[in-house]
Each structure stands twice: as C-alpha cells, then as structure tokens.
Amino acid sequence: MRVFLIPTLVTLALVAQPRATAQDRGAPAAAKASAPVDMTGYWVAFVTEDWRFRMITPRKGDYQAVPMTEQARKVANAWDPGADEASGNQCKAYGAAAIMRVAARFHITWQDDNTLRVDSDAGMQTRLFHFNSPAAPPGERTWQGVSTAQWQPPASLKVATANMRSGYLRKNGVPYSENAAVTEYFDIAPLPGGGQVLLVTTIVDDPEYLQQPFIVSSQFKKEADGSKWDPTPCTAK
C-alpha cells in the first residue's frame, strides 16, 4: 500500500498527466523519452513541517515520531558529532534515507537516457536513479546506495534504494542500518498562483533500528535557475 503524507493544499493541486507512449518496435523506450513528466531543474526545500528536525540540528534525545527500536535508542543516545567529524563520517545525515529531508537545493538532470541524476548543494551529494538496468552484484556500500527507478501511471516516479552505508535519519544520531531499504515516490503538482512543487514521499524499512516503516513527505519549489546554488560540504554539527 502506498501511503502519502501530503498537506491538503498540495493534494488538491495534484493533476493527472498523460504518459508518453514512445516505443521502438516493441522494445522498452528509454526512460527519458518515455517520461510522463519533466522533473529536471533546480528545486529548493519548502519546509512547512518538522522545522526543528530539518532546519536545525535537534537536541540529543529528541526522537519524536520515529518508531525506533531499543537498540536504535542506544545508538542515538551515544551520538557524538565531534567523533563523527574526526572519523570522516560527517555525511551520516546526508545518505539516501535522509538526504531529501535536508534543507537544501537539488538539481535534477538526465545523466543519460536511462539515468536520472539528483545533486544536492548541502552535503554535495549525488544520487543516480537507474532505469532499465540489469541486475548486477552489489558493490561497496555508499551513502547513496544503489537506486533503481520506474515510471508509474499516471505521472509518478518510484525509486527503490539499497546497499547503503549506515547513517542517520535525523542529524542528532537517529540511526538507520546498512540493511535498511528506502522506497520513494516523486510527484509534481502545480502551485496555486503559478509554479510547481515536487512532492517526495520517503518510506524507510529497517529491521534492525525501526519497529515499523518510517514515512515522511517532503516538498520542493521549482526555481527559475541555479543562481542560488551554493555547494557546501557535509557537516555533523
């Protein structure tokens, strides 16, 4: 079951868009050519909820609304941002399970006909969404893991991510393990008065640190250009 936590204003604005039908003699069309909606461009986080978790680093012990296991609480209670910085793990809160919750700008482009690229200025992370990719043996775990994508009718993008390094769901040490799996749904809706909003619903499943799936919905406004793009490295503080 798909679960959406989308504010009423945006929900009312969602409209169906026709799916492209380009095909090559029965062969699957390239993802770019068959895209039912254009997600490319610059998008800025539109923070309307969870301000204290997203705009600032929450205080230690503030884990509200995360269905954590006891083991996860032990890990979070031992959170030490200085130690993370010293060990080169300052990007723990910028992994695939949490990056779309960061108050950042994102630049979405097509890397090639079957790979959608998402860059963040905060943390300088790059995500690659692979369409029509053959199964391959997993390589070394990374912050962004391996993501496979598919278009879903009428105009939604589904992304599944695994093979991640363990990281933080929130910057104050709320953990997810390397066994976590992330499922995301990307949708675009018009804004009243003009403009577009990108809606990202993120579902994190983690048998080690979560008692049930952790589900959040994030919004992003489209910007006219990249004039406000400001790459900054990860920080644990």
Account of the 3D structure:
With 237 residues, the protein is mainly β. Helices cover 10% and strands 32% of the residues. The protein is built from four helices and 13 strands. It has helices at 8-13, 51-54, 70-77, 81-86; strands spanning 41-45, 105-112, 115-120, 122-123, 126-130, 146-152, 156-162, 167-168, 175-176, 181-190, 196-205, 214-223, 232-233. The strands form three sheets. Strands 1-2-3-5-6-7-10-11-12 form a nine-stranded mixed beta barrel. The chain has a two-stranded parallel sheet with strand order 4-13. Strands 8-9 form a two-stranded antiparallel sheet. The chain is globular. Mean pLDDT is 90; it is low at 1-25.
SSE layout and pairings?
Elements: H1 8-13, E1 41-45, H2 51-54, H3 70-77, H4 81-86, E2 105-112, E3 115-120, E4 122-123, E5 126-130, E6 146-152, E7 156-162, E8 167-168, E9 175-176, E10 181-190, E11 196-205, E12 214-223, E13 232-233
Parallel strand pairs: 4-13, 5-6
Antiparallel strand pairs: 1-2, 1-12, 2-3, 3-5, 6-7, 7-10, 8-9, 10-11, 11-12
